[in-house]
């Protein structure tokens, strides 16, 4: 009887923690949407990346609040934030840290770099050379950094939001496919609508009235424990076998689309990897959790598939010559692959 009471208490406590984590996430979502006007999809993608313990690549023109979004997120969760501007003269040690000789002791001490923050904004990541870009690979994939013979674990949560400017390509270094695959999602953002633009003007005027150098304090909305609790809830979300089969079939179709139409023959050179399958699963679960559901539906898979697979599908020259984009190809797969 006592063990039953203890068990009941544990269930009640777990339910209370779940409600608190969910409430905090939606409070955070609402606050971010009040600050990042007209970019609801970017805000939701940031939260999905946080819930799925992944990283985000954002592509868009300058001035679309990419930097502001991650800064506002960093101000509202427990942890530290750092922005690093990627430039052609950046070195890997500028990102990971380096060994510094201390003449007082005659020893080398490791000075940690910006990558040891919970939230890292890699601004214009394609402006840094390949060596610097590759310094992110281990951190993003394994949540650790190896310098010399020593490996340092990164604190959780750890989220990298990298940005790319699609307008100017001079002096840039395109990300290799191996690095693109490390990003959970690749989102492309556009200009806000007219009504959102008016709201942005009003918000800018309000902020301009504040005294220079003084900013209102922002309270932490999410603690690290709440983030871990929410991530565990996302993993425990129910996914029916039929939905799982549908998800897998979409990934398989990205590699060999021919069974779904002769006109798709020759469109793709490489499809999504197994890492893409895992990413699609995690993002679909996170999307369902944010919709306050305890199960994953095919609509959740369809809602995130473009962001998850956009950078994981390498089209053929023939498809590009016909003006077919990755988004066009993914849309055709969603249209043609039957829901189980």
Give a short synopsis of this structure.
The chain has 2 domains: 173 residues, Rossmann fold; 100 residues, Helicase, Ruva Protein, domain 3 (Orthogonal Bundle). 49% of the residues lie in helices and 16% in strands.
Q: Can you give a write-up of this model?
A:
- By secondary structure, the protein is an alpha/beta fold.
- The protein has helices spanning 2-35, 40-51, 66-76, 92-96, 130-142, 177-180, 194-208, 224-236, 241-255, 274-290, 298-309, 317-321, 326-336; strands spanning 56-59, 81-85, 97-102, 107-112, 119-123, 144-147, 150-153, 159-164, 185-188, 238-239, 268-270, 295-296, 314-315.
- It contains 13 helices and 13 strands.
- It has a five-stranded parallel beta sheet. A two-stranded antiparallel ribbon has the order 3-4.
- Strand 3 (97-102) and strand 4 form a beta hairpin.
- Helix 1 runs antiparallel to helix 2, helix 2 crosses helix 10 (274-290) and helix 11 runs antiparallel to helix 13.
- The longest helix is centred in the N-terminal third of the chain and has 34 residues, at 2-35.
- The protein is globular and about 70 Å long.
What key phrases describe this protein's structure?
5-stranded parallel beta sheet; Helicase, Ruva Protein, domain 3; 340 residues; Rossmann fold; 2 domains; alpha/beta
């Amino acid at each position: 009887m006592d063990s039953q009471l203890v068990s009941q208490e544990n269930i009640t406590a777990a339910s209370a923690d779940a409600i608190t984590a969910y409430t905090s996430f939606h409070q955070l979502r609402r606050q971010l949407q009040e600050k990042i006007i007209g970019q609801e999809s970017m805000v939701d993608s940031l939260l999905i990346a946080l819930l799925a313990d992944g990283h985000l690549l954002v592509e868009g023109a300058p001035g679309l609040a990419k930097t502001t979004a991650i800064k506002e997120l960093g101000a509202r969760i427990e942890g530290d934030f750092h922005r690093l501007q990627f430039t052609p003269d950046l070195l890997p040690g500028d990102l990971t840290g380096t060994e510094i000789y201390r003449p007082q002791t005659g020893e080398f001490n490791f000075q940690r770099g910006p990558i040891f923050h919970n939230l890292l904004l890699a601004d214009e990541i394609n402006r840094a050379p390949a060596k610097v870009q590759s310094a992110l690979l281990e951190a993003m994939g394994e949540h650790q950094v190896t310098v010399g013979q020593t490996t340092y674990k990164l604190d959780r949560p750890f989220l990298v939001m990298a940005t790319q400017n699609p307008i100017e390509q001079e002096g840039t270094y395109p990300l290799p496919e191996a690095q693109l695959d490390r990003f959970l999602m690749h989102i492309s953002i556009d200009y806000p609508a007219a009504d959102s633009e008016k709201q942005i003007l009003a918000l800018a005027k309000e902020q301009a009235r504040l005294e220079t150098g003084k900013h209102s304090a922002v309270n932490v909305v999410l603690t690290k424990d709440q983030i871990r609790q929410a991530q565990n809830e996302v993993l425990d979300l129910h996914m029916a076998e039929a939905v799982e089969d549908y998800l897998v079939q979409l990934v398989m179709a990205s590699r060999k689309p021919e069974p779904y139409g002769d006109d798709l023959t020759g469109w793709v050179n490489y499809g999504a990897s197994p890492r893409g399958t895992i990413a699609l699963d995690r993002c679909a679960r996170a999307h369902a959790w944010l919709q306050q559901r305890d199960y994953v539906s095919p609509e959740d898979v369809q809602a995130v598939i473009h962001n998850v697979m956009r950078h994981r599908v390498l089209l053929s020259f023939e498809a590009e010559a016909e003006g077919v984009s990755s988004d066009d190809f993914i849309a055709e797969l969603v249209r043609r692959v039957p829901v189980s």
